[in-house]
Structure to design on (475 residues):
């Protein structure tokens, strides 16, 4: 069996602090945005920044508060990853474990000690940590006191936090991502960037000004990471998936291009080091005037080393798309593509779309790619024998790994692959536990009941074989 994957290809899985750790107030941690996002009918308005939620309510359930208790069970979970043969584990640092309020001059040592223990545990098994600095969590104090990323001061708070991470975990962590799915702030502003809208706001102005601050912060963090250790590799992170034109009508093709640009704008800056040419007209037409400081354009030239992305599905656009005929798979609104199947949650399943997306990204950026999220959210049942036979998940992953192999054969350098939610965790969009992605089942339901016990699924053994054969054996 031959494998298209290079011998040093990194295989593993991904999680995020807010969806896995729980222990939301332990170890000195402060409240973050995601801690305020309830499960149930109020979830969406809060996530979108339409409903202000600055205090917790007694009548609501907040899935991030306990999540899957990775905070106390990380040793067991990392051992399971090691058993599958992981060579990389992507997770995030909860900003508010290190800086509970976000604006303190000094970090919380207990938070640092926790992550050091996690990364040392990875190293014990030769698992390379891949660490996201900000995965959908902003310390709440920064939201209530400063307006989150609306405020230029966030650049300083974030870079202080980033520097602390690069220094504290130097030698343990080499691969870093600045902001998870940075483009999601346009589509889900509170969960993406801690933004809440006020009466009279032009939301587009607020979002793109916040985006500018994040882009400056990301570039500065990249510069600091390289200065602290030239071996550090820093990536940006896109919620990926190309837009297909719904038809070959030129207007549909144009709309698909515009929709792609909306998401790629961020990566265009982070990977190429300057605002793209098309931005000026887009800003003008949306009534946006970005306030820049002297020196910002110079800072943005600190580009990333690699481009990471999530891929769940391709997207589809037409000149006639509107709120009624679109759905929001992975939060980005898309028309339903009649040529592809969808998951139980209506997310498209399109492995060739992954190859298309990867080719487009490499053509555009000429930087190594890293696929840091991919997977199928599905309901899992425990059968009479006590097993979970998740063949649907195996089949989804097999086809996507095959497509990624094709992209590598197309000539694209790819650093690695981390499937999303390698151990079941809380879904970001819905807050459900029952939307499962893992190779390992976690006994917990949507209301927070369950033992939290871990159990290997059929896909666990399958993925172990995939890794052992370096992607040659996908059967
Ligand atoms: C990405 C996020 O948007 O998709 C993850 O980076 C998220 O945090 C994942 O969990 C899958 O989405 P969901 O809503 O099914 O959890």
């Amino acid at each position: 069996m031959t494998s298209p994957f290079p011998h040093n290809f990194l295989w593993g899985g991904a999680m995020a602090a807010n969806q896995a750790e729980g222990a939301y107030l332990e170890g000195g941690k402060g409240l973050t945005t995601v801690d305020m996002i309830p499960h149930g009918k109020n979830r969406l308005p809060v996530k979108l920044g339409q409903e202000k939620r600055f205090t917790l309510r007694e009548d609501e359930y907040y899935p991030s508060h306990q999540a899957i208790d990775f905070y106390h069970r990380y040793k067991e979970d990392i051992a399971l990853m090691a058993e599958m043969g992981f060579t990389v584990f992507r997770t995030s640092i909860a900003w508010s474990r290190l800086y509970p309020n976000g604006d303190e001059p000094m970090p919380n040592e207990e938070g640092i000690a926790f992550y050091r223990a996690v990364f040392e545990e990875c190293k014990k098994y030769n698992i390379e940590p891949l660490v996201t600095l900000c995965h959908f969590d902003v310390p709440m104090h920064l939201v209530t006191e400063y307006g989150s990323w609306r405020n230029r001061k966030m650049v300083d708070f974030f870079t202080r936090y980033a520097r602390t991470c690069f220094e504290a975990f130097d030698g343990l962590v080499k691969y870093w991502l600045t902001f998870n799915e940075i483009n999601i702030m346009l589509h889900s502003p509170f969960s993406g960037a801690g933004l809440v809208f006020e009466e009279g706001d032009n939301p587009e102005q607020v979002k793109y000004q916040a985006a500018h601050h994040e882009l400056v912060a990301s570039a500065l963090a990249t510069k600091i990471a390289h200065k602290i250790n030239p071996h550090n590799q820093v990536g940006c992170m896109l919620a990926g998936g190309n837009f297909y034109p719904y038809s070959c009508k030129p207007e549909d093709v144009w709309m698909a291009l515009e929709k792609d640009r909306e998401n790629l704008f961020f990566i265009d800056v982070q990977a190429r080091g300057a605002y793209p040419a098309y931005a000026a007209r887009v800003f003008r037409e949306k009534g946006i005037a970005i306030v820049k400081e002297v020196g910002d354009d110079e800072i943005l030239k600190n580009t990333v080393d690699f481009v990471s992305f999530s891929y769940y599905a391709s997207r589809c656009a037409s000149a006639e798309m509107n709120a009624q005929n679109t759905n929001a798979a992975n939060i980005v609104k898309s028309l339903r593509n009649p040529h592809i199947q969808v998951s139980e949650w209506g997310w498209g399943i399109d492995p060739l779309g992954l190859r298309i997306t990867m080719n487009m990204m490499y053509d555009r950026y000429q930087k190594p790619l890293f696929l840091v999220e991919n997977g199928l959210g599905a309901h899992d049942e425990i059968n009479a024998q006590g097993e979970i036979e998740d063949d649907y998940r195996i089949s989804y992953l097999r086809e996507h790994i095959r497509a990624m192999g094709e992209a590598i054969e197309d000539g694209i350098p790819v650093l690695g692959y981390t499937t999303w939610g390698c151990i079941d965790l809380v879904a970001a969009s819905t807050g459900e536990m029952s939307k499962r992605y893992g190779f390992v089942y976690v006994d917990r339901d949507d209301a927070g009941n369950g033992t939290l016990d871990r159990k290997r699924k059929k896909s666990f053994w399958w993925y172990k074989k995939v890794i052992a054969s370096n992607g040659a054996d996908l059967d």
